[in-house]
Amino acid sequence: MIRELLSGPYDKVNGVRIHASKQAYRPGHLIGNRLLTSLVSLFFGDQSRDMLSGYKALSRRFVKTFPAVSAGFEIETELLIHALELGVPMSEVETHYKERPAGSLSKLATYKDGFRILWVIFHLIRDLLPLPFFLSIAAVLALIAIGFGTPVFLNYLSTGLVPRFPTLIAVSAAMILAFLSVFAGLILDSVARSRKEAKLLAYLSYRSVQR
Length: 211
Known about the structure:
By secondary structure, this protein is mainly alpha-helical. The chain has 2 domains: about 130 residues, Spore Coat Polysaccharide Biosynthesis Protein SpsA, Chain A; about 80 residues. It has 7 helices and 3 strands; from the N terminus they run αβαβααβααα. It has a 3-stranded mixed β-sheet. Helix 2 packs parallel to helix 5, helix 4 runs parallel beside helix 5 and helix 5 packs across helix 6. The longest helix is centred in the C-terminal third of the chain and has 40 residues. The radius of gyration is 23 Å and the shape is elongated. The mean pLDDT is about 85.
């Protein structure tokens, strides 16, 4: 992996675990890994084959500019998304992976850590992609407002009366929140761009890996 890191030169090399036996992974781990990796690929455009692999080689400038926040297994997700955000050169190499020695225990809690990783992905989507995130919320709120508000509006056109004021108030509130979500997305998108530029400048201030 270090040889691959120097050959690019790359700033991040990920070890793709290749297992020869089914006992190498606990039940659900392989499926969960693929689902979470696919989710990150969907939003951030990566085609990593094994996002949650703990086998990684990182350059000095990548490590120095990585804002480590997580203390658990979700750090692999943060590493990948940080690399994708800055567009750092990356590579993958296949590594052998086999079952644990008899009597040893894994520190990974399947469901607890899985939900923690999912929660981190959610937060990173909100922080790094605020415009599509808040536009999605606005679209949902607008659809709810239109769905519940259309009968009230049609009834008003035909009778001149609004018999369901609570519905009208709720619909109006939902539409206002939809507009606020759009404006929040626009403002936070500008903030996210500024933060990305600052992180990119910090990253570029370090020399790349020397062969």
